[in-house]
Amino acid sequence: MELSFIVIDDTDLDHFIAKRVITNKHKTARVKSFMDATLALEHITEERDDASTKVVLIFLDIYMPIMNGFQFIDEFEKLHPDIQDKYYIVALTSSREVSDINRIKSHGSFKTWLTKPITADALSVLLNKVCTELNIQLPE
Amino acid sequence: MADKIKILYIDDEKDNLTGFKASFRLDYQVFTSINIPGAIEHLVNHPDIRVIFCDQRMPLRTGVEFFEEIRTTFPLPMRILLTGYTDIEAVIDSINRGNIFRFVKKPWDEAEIISAIEEANKFYLANSMLSIKNDELQKAYSELDKFAYSVSHDIRGPLSGVLGAINVAREMYDIAEMKEMLFLMEKSLKKLDTYILSMHDYYSLQRGELQISDIDFNSLIDEFKHIYTAFADTSNINFKISINQHESFRNDAAPLKLILNNLLSNAFKYQNKHNSVKEVELIIDVRKGVAIIQVKDTGIGILGNHIGEIFNLFYRASSQDAGSGFGLYNVKSALLKLNGQIEVNSILDKGTTFKVTLPTK
After folding, report:
1. pLDDT digits (tens, 9 = 90+) for B172-209
2. Does the beta-carbon distance from B164 to A115 stay under 8 Å?
3. CATH T-level fold of A4-134
4. Hey, is the C-beta of B323 within 8 angstroms of any chain A C-beta?
């Protein structure tokens, strides 16, 4: 099964790192990048063509201008449940701010969170968790 | 007249009012009223009344009742009760309910009234200072909160990016890819550097004293013109400067440079990548002791609903990866210090014009 990824972050370097860490582990993985959360939201709302992928993993940065991670998740939670079911959202944060972590925990749509930077180890642990929770298997 | 302390006297006996006014109108601006509605009208029209004298025995309401009533609506003026007989109940009542500042016995003695006014005025001023300090403190606290939050993201953000990149580099063997990553790392670190420099600007604007000197805009601009001209050349941006100054202009050069630098760097930073003609224009006009500085760009513009917020600390209206959320806030603080004003006109995808108006010092 193919797992695809969306990275939403306002920093070029963080996109580069996320993409690199993901493709280091899964050479064929599809990674879409959005610098602007509003465009990512549009994409999710309109996109119908990745029917083949069962789940899209979203790495969502919390601290962004215009639409931050929390504003994104508020909008996301208004979408049709069928759309929401296709996405597994992981919050990405550069800080360990307690207020942020508590806010992340208060949203059911944030399945979990990672502190930046994304590392190969953290990604492995995360993917194992996702596979167990959703009962899917990834090709090695 | 404007410098005299404003006082208000309420009494149901007209003779008392007339006598009071005659005695004190030279030293104070005296308002009088024969009844409570008239007194309230004075308080509404003159929010800077500092001391209120009120007679205790009046037909509809007692002085204490009146003071109790206005305590919350007009909390600032000091309240002084005038009473003809010493009734201990009235004294206790007035202190507990009317929260009065002083008692003056009727018939009053001129010296006693003057000393009451002067004492009350001291308290009034101390209270006002306290409330100004309190507001400043509240503002500082809320900025500190914003700071703590921003620092944890804006400083740790670029650092975590660079750490992540170093991790990734361990398994990277392609030189071209490595160079691309180095470029992005540099960009992140530059952003961090700008953030820290702006933080220093922020601090010096909040604390420093003004240092006024003669400003020659031509030589002021010369100091940083070459940086922007070089940038304009490499990024294919047409940079025009026109300075029109035929009179002396006095101001503080440091905040002035900060304003110009921030507005110019924004104008260059937020250019529209897809525009074939890119332009930044700086126009300075000094006339009749007022400098008008305009910075115009053909950039991405600012969405209407963000314009009200762009001067707020840590507010960023663009996801174009560059802002620290300090720049325009610092511009506004600098203008506040120099008694200047700023206007923004912006059309999305067309460009933005900032217009600064500054008086000479």
Report:
1. 999 999 999 999 999 999 989 988 988 888 888 877 77
2. no
3. Rossmann fold (3.40.50)
4. yes
